[in-house]
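Last lecture ended with a question: if I hand you only a sequence, what can you say about the shape of the protein? Today we answer it with a concrete record. The protein is ABC transporter substrate-binding protein. Below, first the input exactly as provided, then the predicted structure, then a couple of comments.
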Amino acid sequence: MTQRLVSICPSNTELLHLLGLMDRVVGVDDYSDWPPELVAGLPKLGPDLNIDMEKLQALQPDLVIASLSVPGMEKNIERLEQLGLNYLVLDPKSFEDIYRDVETLGQACGVQERAAEIVAELRGRVERVVNAVPKGSEALNLYWEWWPRPLISPGSLNWLTELSRLVGAENLFADKPGDSYTAEHDEVISRAPDYVFAVWCGVHADKVKPSMITERPGWDAVPAVREGRVYVLEEGLYCRPSQRLFDGLEELARLLYPELQL
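The predicted structure:
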């Protein structure tokens, strides 16, 4: 049985919690902050893109779990390979990938039955949302902002494109290839999003004010700005491919359709 686990990506830490494996986790990256009561006392190994490999080695892990959902993680994976450490790399871009990651972790850690139960629960949550949202109306355009300077937004190959469609909406830049897209201000304005969602990666919602977006030159022409539909959401519910993304899905459905009962 895999006894000593190290996670070097926040979403992986959250999936280990979901699987009931936090008692085996002996170290995490600096950005793993959830669940707070369980990660607070764990050794921190540095930012997810600059892991202290000597400190990691000293923990004598049976398995290190990395994720390519964090751009630049390849450098850590190369070092793990060079050091001869046992590691697992996840690369989720969709809800199906998350289900598969849960099963992969469950297999690697000997909790396959628990993993299968969790996947069934997660699929059920998605099905309830899809069945509840109104059908037949024109899709709302959602501008997801991951970063303000430059403007970075999810592209076609990202879970937020799928998440948007599950609630009957469309990611503003779903037509752009890849998992992220660097936009110009004029592009956002001309595409006229119905909603703007600020989910700045690594920045807590209480540090971001809607006025940081609404007061940008020219953005007063954007329908979302004119109609007061600029929201700052907790990035942990939208930027991490873990069970918390399903919380974000339900939150988004309730925000777009306040009459829903989920």
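Comments.
1. The domain at 135-256 is CATH 3.40.50.1980 (Rossmann fold).
2. The chain has two domains: 5-94, 135-256.
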